[in-house]
Each structure stands twice: as C-alpha cells, then as structure tokens.
Amino acid sequence: MGEECFRELFTRHPNNPILQAKDLSYPASSVFNAAATRIGEETLLLMRVEDRSGISHLTAARSLDGVTAWRIDPGPTLSPCPEKYPEEIWGLEDARITRIDALQLWAVVFVAYSRGGPLVSLATTKDFQQFERLGVIMPPEDKDAAIFPVRFGGRWAMLHRPVTASAGFGAHIWLSFSPDMKHWGDHQVVIPARKGGWWDANKIGLSPPPLQTEKGWLILYHGVRTTAGGCIYRLGLALLDPEDPTRLLARSDEWVFGPEQAYETTGDVDKVVFPCGWVAEKDFLRLYYGGADKCIALATARIPEILEWLDRHEQRNRRLWG
Description:
- By secondary structure, the chain is mainly β.
- The protein has one domain: Tachylectin-2, Chain A.
- Helix content is 4%, strand content 47%.
- It contains two helices and 21 strands.
- The chain has helices at residues 262-265, 303-312; strands at 11-12, 30-39, 42-50, 56-63, 71-72, 92-100, 105-114, 117-125, 131-138, 142-147, 156-162, 173-178, 185-191, 204-206, 211-213, 216-227, 230-240, 248-251, 273-281, 284-291, 295-302.
- The strands form five sheets. Strands 14, 15, 16, 17 and 18 form a five-stranded antiparallel sheet that branches.
- β12 (173-178) and β13 form a beta hairpin.
- The radius of gyration is 18 Å and the shape is globular.
C-alpha cells in the first residue's frame, strides 16, 4: 500500500507494574520514579518511596533479570537528614544515577525539597550502601538533573530544569559545566520548551540520564501539556552532539510514549509516565518509569530503532520552537 506500518518504539512489559508499595517490607504510600543502573550482574533501582507522612526517601531494589525477584532494602537506603542538610527537610525525590568510570563511582543526583522549594543535590557512592553527600549544587527551583558520564574539555556537564521567576519564559532543559561537580557555571538552554498547542509546550524536563550512542547523546525528555482535564506527561526524543553537548542535533516533533494503561492514567497524579532511569545492554534498552506517581513500570526498546526513528522524524521547522 506504500504506507509505513505504525509501531510503537517502546513496548510495555506484560508484568507491569513491576514494583508497588505492597512489595516493600515496611509501610509506604507509593513507590515511583526510580533511577536505574547496573551493579555487577544485577540491575539496581533507586526508588522514590513516599511514606505515610507524605515525605519521600530513596530505597534500593536489586534484580538479576531487571524484571522479577526484586531484593528490596529492608528500610530507606538514603533518607533525608535535615539536621545536617537543612535543604532536605521535606524529603528526597526523583534520583538519576550516572556511572563515572574515571572515578570508579556512581553519581546520584536527586531533588531535595527545601523550605524554599525543590533544588538539585548530589551524592556519590561506590556500593549503594555508603553515600558521600556533596550537598546542594543548584538552588531552587530546579529539578530533573543528571550528570554526563564523561568530561568535556576537562569539565563535567549536567542537564537540569530550573524554573525562572518569569512564568512567561517557560521551563526548559539547561546545560551547565563544572570542574569539580560542586561549582557549576556556563549555564545555557540546550532544549527549549515549545509554545502554543504542542505536546511539549511551556514545560519540559530531562527523564533518564543522557545515553551515549554512536550518533550522539540520546535524550529522553518529558513534556507537560495542560488540558481542561488536567496535565498529561508524555515523552519525546532528542540528540546532542557527541563531542559538544551544547549542540542540539535532532529533536522529534511527536511524543513517543504516553499514559494509556490504568496504572499510568489513575493514581496519586493521573496521566503520568515519568522515567528516571534506563539500562542499556548492547542494542537493548530497558526503561523504568513511574506510573501515575503510584508504581514502577518497565518498557523495552531497541536503540538502533530509536535512532533511526529520530532521524526520520527530526523536527521539520526549528522556527516553531526556537
């Protein structure tokens, strides 16, 4: 017939949701928005757990196949410590994990919810049992941050999503650089939110950490569309230059994954798919995402298919958003 047969890039796992609050050995309201990495032969998720007080902490879960038989820490793995870190008074949220091979450790970037609003904090670990906090690295309001696994020109780079005092400016994905992961500068917008009726108008944010591919740094980001029925969180794709992450090489016009199943459309916050982690094994990709701020689900994809799709669906007119 000459027409391309439509097929989703991401396939939901039949076991979804793979983790819920009932899987923990201690009382909790919900588990969602988990960071992900490989540690030895296992997949490790650093889950956001909201307890029954309404405050969140981070708890690790481990699995050999990344799908079943999760071994969950018997208590919080990383808890708020407002006595030493007052910015954590209202909890820890939405971590992203980056393996830093050059330093032989993992960088865990998370949201600390302070009295002044959400901000970006950083801790490092070598075993996900002991953590070294570096403290606040971006002031409020800032979220959705992750560090690249390599340096650029001798400096570390981080994507994040500050919200400015001027609501009309929008909430965009910014890029910043640092010599030591503590002091950040050269701030600049690298992926702007669009305007008007687009699915990603006005407010976007990074989802998992940037993924290194043969064509560049693959970015999965969420866009928030406000409708008469409430907000809808969907996911889109972008690609940054492999040597210079300030250069946006490609960005899709269309969203590629959105809330459809009951565990994504109904929960503490309806109509939300929110990934904070993915694990790549050769060409195969496992995407871990929060469903409706209530549970953790899994979708799979093939990296070459994602890159080929992005090449064919790269935005047609940059003037529409630039």
